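Anyone able to model this chain together with farnesyl diphosphate?
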Amino acid sequence: MPKHIGIIMDGNGRWASERGLPRTEGHVAGAKVFRRISDYCHEIGIDVVTFYAFSTENWRRPPTEVAALMKLFKENLIEADEIKYDRQKGGYILRFIGDTSAIPNELQKLVSKTQLDAIDENTTVINIALNYGGRQEILHSVKQIAERVERGELKASKITAEDIAAGLYTAGQPDPDLIIRPSGELRLSNFLTYQSAYSELYFSNVLWPDFTTDDLDEAILDYAKRNRRFGGV
Ligand code: FPP
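re: yes, here you go
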């Protein structure tokens, strides 16, 4: 079983167009699938799931679409955070990865205060990549390291790959074992750029609003057949 699954929720616009609906309806349908798949990942015991919800490039979309997406994030995430986390029973906790300074205040308040080391085995961490870009994340980490060097706390020659990983938004979490992209596109689009070095990739033609728990099972079964060598033999 993968410990960490990354999911690029793609194809909402095409799903809506195929039905003669506005693009935003595709996102509404996609949000329902986000919730179903989050629940299912918790049921089957996945530790971490990272959903690509809004990239640093998505601000280029029409303002009405951006506003509709922000509204959807608020509705789904605020409600989910209130309902789903119960320390006794476990559940899932939501975390944001990305530059949250540009997202609406109500959403920023949601950033989980739960420390990762306080998370028990019944809990699934749901990372929502919001205003996220993999290159920007690496840059953010590198700047923090440069500041430590400037302050004389760290020698440039002593910088390690672990230092870079420690400055990423996913610090303390395992790298994604499996990254799933539905909708037929065959690229990662700036998603988990540093963390995906050894991830297994799974592409499918299903559009995200049509993605089911059976599709997730199929991806996990495919992953289970892979031979991961991490550069070894
Ligand atoms: C890409 O499909 C999808 C997005 C940019 C938005 C993803 C957001 C959701 C599914 C909303 C729910 C999420 C949460 C966390 C509540 P696209 O619009 O680029 O599709 P297209 O390629 O068919 O145009």
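The chain has one domain: 4-133+174-224.
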